[in-house]
Amino acid sequence: MPNTERSRAQGVAKLIGLYVISVVVALLVSAILIKLTGGPWQKVVSAFFDGAFRRKGRWGLTLTEAAPLLIVALGAIISTRAGLVNIGQEGQVAVGAACMAMVATRGSGPLVLVLALVAGFAGGALWAGLAALLKYWRKVPEVISTLLLVFIASQGTGYMLTRTFWLLDSDPNKPNKVQTSAQLDASTRIGQIRIFGNSFPWSVPVALLLAVVVSVLLYRSVWGFRLTVLGRNARTAQRIGVPVVIAGASALALGGALAGLAGATMLAGGAANYRFTSGFANNVGWEGLLVALVARNRPLVCIPVALLFATLRTGSGFLAATGVERSIVDVARSLLVLALLVPPAVAAIRRRRLSPPAAPVSTDEPVVAAGLGA
Predict the structure, then answer these.
(1) CB 273 within 8 A of CB 198
(2) Which of 299, 328, 142 has the alpha carbon at shortest distance from 209?
(3) What does the pLDDT look like over 329-367, one tens digit per residue?
(4) Which helix (H) or strand (E) holds 195?
């Protein structure tokens, strides 16, 4: 036991060291690129932290940005646990926000807000459900269908913004050079929490609660165990009584539903001044998927990772004021993301080399059958 604990501690220490080395290398390369383009890298670092935390109201904005990233990541984890690769979160976020806007702009009050959030949840589920239908009906790989549905969602929601029947603001006193929906009424918005001059919506603590709930369900429930078995071996899952089609389709739809909910909470929480616009998702779907990958599909680990990605989003907004070109800012941000993805990849390769092949799962074990039947 002591040797096992010692080896586990050494493995954790090596992983932490690899993270530190990767981030330091990414920062050094970023500093070199900034220096080569004539920018003062010292001012860049200071401006980054000003934009993320130090300036008044900025850390509240960082928390606001982190909430939808966390919700999207939780949905991606659920799909991945069932062995399904959902990479269409960007489209599901857009569809969820559009469905939310359709309901929220046609009424006001807390009840309308609840119904609009449910509409966003259902919209994301429906959009991911199309990929589930194609997979189990026509054998179309979900990694392809979810990706292609992103472009359909972009064009579809863009078309909805050209018709007042759907989403376009019909107020004649507000001519729109950029097509947007009507602004949400003050009573149809998520309330704000104000602390020390910073404000963030109630969706932030809700996202934290969702992370705890998803973690408990995946690791401490029969449903989570069934998804795990399905993700590791669909044939074994079928033999021990797991409804493969229903479980897989529901996991994919639930992942999309959480992405749609993320889009709905973004709109009701103040994104784009409470208006749905073209390109509303703003890469939240893609970055939420990256949060899940960096966190190695662990719901609670997604919390600090989502905060880190939100810091990159809010901090980079202040870098343009230092004279650094926007393209260099994007490159530096991408290098940091890549640095966070390297250690999990190295750890996975190391496990595959050191670990012996897993023993085949027996379907004759009465304990397993009894556990699944509970």
Answers:
(1) no
(2) 299
(3) 778 778 888 888 888 788 778 777 766 554 444 434 443
(4) strand 192-195
Helical H segments across 270-325, by residue range? 284-294, 302-316
Q: What is the pTM of this model?
A: 0.88
What is the number of alpha carbons within 13 Å of residue 291 lying toward its C-beta? 36
- Using CA atoms, how far residue 61 sits from 55, 191, 231, 357, in Å, is 11, 14, 36, 46
Residue 201 phi, psi dihedral angles, 5° rounding: -75, 165
How far apart CA 298 and CA 362 sit, in angstroms, is 27
Q: Are 277 and 86 in contact (CB under 8 A)?
A: no
Contact 276, 82 (CB under 8 A): no
CB atoms within 10 A of CB 174: 10
Do residues 201 and 270 touch, judged by C-beta distance below 8 A?
yes
pLDDT in tens, 140-175: 999 999 999 999 999 999 999 999 899 998 876 665
Is the sign of the CA dihedral 235, 241, 245, 248 positive or negative? negative
Q: What sign results for the dihedral spanned by CA atoms 73, 188, 62, 314?
A: positive
Rounded Cα distance between 303 and 300, Å, is 6
Distance of CA 52 to CAs 61, 136, 223, 309, 354, Å? 8, 44, 38, 11, 40
* Residue the block writes with tokens 């979160």: 89
Q: Is 73 exposed, middle or buried (0-12, 13-18, 19+ CB in 10 A)?
A: buried
